[in-house]
Structure prediction request, 701 residues.
Amino acid sequence: MAKDAARDRKDEQLDRDRVADDDQALTTQQGVRVDHTDDSLAAGERGPTLMEDFHVREKITHFDHERIPERVVHARGAGAYGVFQPYDDWLRDYTTAAFLTDPDATTPVFLRFSTVAGSRGSADTVRDVRGFAVKFYTSEGNYDLVGNNFPVFFIQDGAKFPDFVHAVKPEPRNEIPQAASAHDTLWDFVSLQPETLHAIMWLMSDRALPRSYRMMQGFGVHTFRLVDANGRGTFVKFHWTPALGTHSLVWDEVQKIAGADADFNRRDLWDAIEAGDFPEWELGVQLVPEEDEFAFDFDLLDATKLIPEELVPVRPVGKLTLNRNPDNFFAETEQVAFHTANVVPGIDFTNDPLLQARNFSYLDTQLIRLGGSNFAQIPVNRPVAEVHNDQRDGYGQHRVHTSATSYNKNTISGNDPAPGADRSFTHYAEKVEGAKIRRRSESFKDFYSQPAMFWHSMSEVEAEHIVAAFRFELGKVTDKDIRTRVVDQLRQVDLELAKRVAEGIGVAAPAEGAADRGRTSPALSQLTDPVATVATRKVAVLAAEGVDGTGLTSLVADLHRRGAVAEVLGLTDGMIASATGEDVQADRALPTMASVLYDAVAVPCGPDSVAALSRDGRAVHFVAEAYKHGKAVAAFGAGLGLLRAARIEAECADGVEPVDDHGVVTTAANGGDLPEAFLDAFAGAIAGHRAWDRRTDDIPA
Prediction:
């Protein structure tokens, strides 16, 4: 069908570039077959290597150049292919961009997630901003929506970007710490640059610790402009909302996950797509008529500000689905090149000074990373739209141009390729005038109102996490003057926040500061209207010899039926002999896993199994740690004994009727068919993500 033409062209294009080396003869890069690749050509068995050995020279040369420079920021990433499709055509009144307005068109995409501060070898779960960059292969050319999982950035002008990145990167004297913001130079910068405070509040919140890329919002950050068929402009903010809801890890978890599985988020994305649990996001927009540009108490062009959804609602546009993993990480995820200036007709820029600098920086970065100006010909970057221009030669030129001319205007080639065809990009006609100056707009100088709005929009538990994050980060700062200056900035946001942070870092609490400014935005809290689903949630089921095999099988089958991923963890790998006669296959050995890698834990009945687990310190710690992190915990029959061994003081059932005490779901039933009410209650606890009101003070860490 015509609506799938762009997607099919991209798939065919990638198929041509996909190489399967299995069952093929070994050749050089020139296609010459090679008879031996283990030894260099030499003058005799112990003689010198000969320069004429073109195969070994080529092999070593290619190896020497295998690594390209990693990204200065966003080096650690993961990506996948998918499709985007609009729901309907309502946005046609605001933009001519066909991929946003034609509900019959499916546009292929590549989406790359990333951390910002760390190197390629850093862990996934560090406290950091996450990149959320989408390349749309539209029929009118590539469009790149290069965003983050925060809607605001740390600085207002691109001139400060090198300074900010230098400050957050490892300190130059010792290259410490890796992928962390808890050090002197970052907080020195923050204490002297109050424009950073709004993004810093997001960085100290749970938003900086996503449970999964699949459970993470995305934002275009900047105010862009949509342009309709009559050349009329409308300001726009882009939002990505995950179908699974927005969920986060807790700080204790992320530190342990970094050791247990440094690839936690990358693996999660890969495994979900391989299993057919395709991640989905809804694209939404906030639209502001140009005549309302100055209707807010902040500047729309200030990238450190967001538009509260209560003022301008987010309107749904369409759905993005990731449905295929890359075939080769380097060729695709590492070489994909995003650029904020890759726009198509109907989408244009604003005078946001940070966006204007990014429009220069991204292209400049790709030139050094990918070896020259032909990086757009790399398969993952290649548009599905036809490419015709007079650009020639350069490193990595893949195209064989046969035209007699490479300039415009010309008569030899009939003046082709000719500019000005239908659907050409036309820049928005905006009147611009003014003196040449280096001066920040006065409208950019409210640094504290939106950080205060963010703080006052948090739930109690989210606020506790923010305070704890500030205390941890500033506790790593060795310069006491920097700590004091940061607290002084925080008192401009909220006096109570500054006092709570100061108490934990050995700084005198301020006596006065900003009071509650009154504005809140419920949409900023992750706990407002959460998506409750067990889909793709990972559940550990602990078992040892003598387990109630019938009950275990019933529980696992029910979880799978609901869309969860249940794994049986044995004390060792292999088969587990059950008390009910059938053997149970352990999916993994408990010593190789950790509770922080799961969303919930269940303990089946079986007196011998529970006794063995209770004697194993790792099993006891597994349950206690999951409980301490607020995760759903379930036990039935004798399984309640392991909860007691873990000092879980929840109310436990003494009969068949299940009890749900702050996400601890129990029943005395065992074997046979588990009560439906028990299964429903456990699924409901998992869908709730965390039991935030659970008291865990008495549980060892």
The chain is about 30% helix and 15% strand. The radius of gyration is 28 Å. The chain has a mean pLDDT of 93. The longest strand covers residues 77-86.
